[in-house]
Amino acid sequence: MDAVSTLFQKATTSDGGSKEEVLTKNLIQWKIYVDNDKIRLGVFKKINTEWESISTRTENYPYRSRI
């Protein structure tokens, strides 16, 4: 879970614009997309040579980060 926490920190330290971060460990890949009011997290598993989606979740997050 520490890897996902680090991924969120990297994605939310931007200047308030849209940002996408990708983290790959072993056969699992996490993609997080942060926009002004939404966070989308996708989890993918590598099968043979392609990444297949395991789960995707989008959350409304209408709060601005404090800098």
Automatic annotation (TrEMBL):
This is Uncharacterized protein. It comes from Rhizophagus irregularis. It comes from the Eukaryota.
